[in-house]
Specification:
Layout: E1 2-11, E2 14-24, E3 29-34, H1 40-47, E4 55-60, E5 63-64, H2 70-76, E6 78-81, H3 93-100, H4 107-120, H5 122-126, H6 137-149, E7 155-159, H7 167-182, E8 186-190, H8 194-199, E9 203-208, E10 211-217, H9 218-223, H10 225-231
Parallel strand pairs: 3-8, 3-9, 6-7, 7-8
Antiparallel strand pairs: 1-2, 1-4, 4-5, 9-10
Helix pairs in contact: 3-6
Length: 234
């Protein structure tokens, strides 16, 4: 579904991503792990066209999307859940979810999608009239994922969904991530908790200093001594 070839991203003279190549198959959850500053978020932003790629190509469902306008990405079927959640704090939960559905016209379909999101996150239903800025961090993360799902994406890009959350909320978020994946969603996941990321994915890529240095099935990476020492705290 997603094929990234020779992707290069830079901030001025600083090279954040150095000609990386990887792919994500339809229906897969793929984890991208690495230390802070490894280039993971820059990779996701380049795919979503929030950042311009200096070089390389990104193909999605066989189409070259490397240089299309950013606002067309969501219509192609890619939804980014950014690091830091990025909810609209002065809009209600319901209004935030409707913002995720702005590319759809049929009200009946939007209502159907709302029921789907509330099925994953019952707490959002309870809070639907509450301002998003007054939600807890975990509830805002639920809302950010729910808003992305409202666009009916073919693929979710998740950037650090557990960041800053209490362990019980992290568990809830990842229960839903796994449920969404089980329902057929393709997911590219960046997660600071490397163990959790690999336990929730089929394959993984390890990034160091803007380069992919290792990749393989997630179970294999979990058992690899170098990965365990560098990223799993062992």
């Amino acid at each position: 579904m997603l094929e990234v070839t020779g992707l290069h991203v830079a901030y001025g003279g600083i090279q954040a991503v150095r000609s990386i190549t990887f792919h994500v198959n339809e229906g897969e959850t793929v984890a991208l792990i690495g230390a802070n500053g490894a280039g993971k978020t820059s990779t996701l932003k380049a795919i979503a066209r929030v950042l311009d790629a200096v070089g390389g190509d990104v193909h999605f469902c066989g189409e070259d999307i490397t240089r299309i306008a950013p606002h067309h990405i969501i219509r192609k079927g890619i939804a980014l859940v950014p690091e830091g959640r990025g909810v609209f704090p002065r809009l209600t939960v319901l209004e935030n979810l409707h913002m995720g559905a702005y590319i759809h016209n049929a009200a009946v379909d939007v209502e159907k999608d709302l029921k789907m999101v509330y099925g994953y996150f019952p707490r959002l239903k309870e809070r639907e009239s509450q301002l998003a800025g007054t939600l807890s961090g975990g509830e805002q993360q639920m809302l950010a994922i729910g808003r992305a799902l409202m666009s009916r994406p073919k693929m979710l890009l998740l950037d650090e969904p557990s960041m800053g959350l209490a362990p019980i909320m992290v568990q809830k978020i990842f229960e839903v991530v796994r449920a969404v994946a089980a329902d057929g969603m393709t997911i590219l996941l960046i997660e600071q908790n490397a163990r959790l990321a690999l336990q929730s994915s089929q394959r993984g890529y390890v990034m160091e200093s803007g380069e992919i240095t290792f990749n393989g099935e997630s179970a294999m990476l979990l058992d690899d001594p170098k990965v365990r020492a560098a990223y799993l705290g062992e």
